[in-house]
Amino acid sequence: MAVQPWGEQGSGYGAPPPHVPVKPYAQPWQPAQAPQMPQAAMRAAHTDRDRTVDVLKAAYAEGRLSADEYGQRFEAASSAQTYGELARLVADLPSGPMVTPMTMAGAPVPQTFLPPPPPPARPTNGAAVASLVLSLVGLGLPAVIAGHIAKGQIRERNEDGDAMATVGLVLGYLECVIWSLFMLVVLAVG
């Protein structure tokens, strides 16, 4: 039966799970030389031991440690009293994401955490611009024709300019009405 790196719930640090026979290790594990740090002599807490055991579990699960090596380091972590002792247990193991030249140089932020890019700018419909200009000049009938053409193109092509086409149509129709009334008055008087 294989030794599980996570042990049993409530088994404690030093005690092996009850269903796993205790056997002597094939070859004793020698702790690596940990880098000297100012807090090496500080006393370790239970959470510090738990973090070290988590690194050992990950290394065992990834195949970096054999079952014997994991067991020896697990027991050493259970009885470690200082940060220095814990650091020696994991000095030759990665304790998190590997640092690469890309991450040291400031890797780009993953796309997941960036705000979505703004939508691309839609082009403005030329017929809508023409409709507005013609209506401002006073040419109502061409403005109405250009406005209707613009409305159809805007729907088909997903372009901007709907407001310009609407203003061109409204002013164009008003100008057509004014020109029609003017012609009626001229014909009635004449």
TrEMBL record:
<protein>
    <submittedName>
        <fullName>DUF1707 and DUF4190 domain-containing protein</fullName>
    </submittedName>
</protein>
<feature type="compositionally biased region" description="Low complexity">
    <location>
        <begin position="24"/>
        <end position="34"/>
    </location>
</feature>
<keyword id="KW-0812">Transmembrane</keyword>
<feature type="domain" description="DUF1707">
    <location>
        <begin position="42"/>
        <end position="94"/>
    </location>
</feature>
<dbReference type="InterPro" id="IPR012551">
    <property type="entry name" value="DUF1707_SHOCT-like"/>
</dbReference>
<keyword id="KW-0472">Membrane</keyword>
<feature type="transmembrane region" description="Helical">
    <location>
        <begin position="167"/>
        <end position="189"/>
    </location>
</feature>
<dbReference type="Pfam" id="PF13828">
    <property type="entry name" value="DUF4190"/>
</dbReference>
<feature type="domain" description="DUF4190">
    <location>
        <begin position="128"/>
        <end position="181"/>
    </location>
</feature>
<feature type="transmembrane region" description="Helical">
    <location>
        <begin position="126"/>
        <end position="146"/>
    </location>
</feature>
<dbReference type="Pfam" id="PF08044">
    <property type="entry name" value="DUF1707"/>
</dbReference>
<feature type="region of interest" description="Disordered">
    <location>
        <begin position="1"/>
        <end position="34"/>
    </location>
</feature>
<dbReference type="InterPro" id="IPR025241">
    <property type="entry name" value="DUF4190"/>
</dbReference>
<keyword id="KW-1133">Transmembrane helix</keyword>
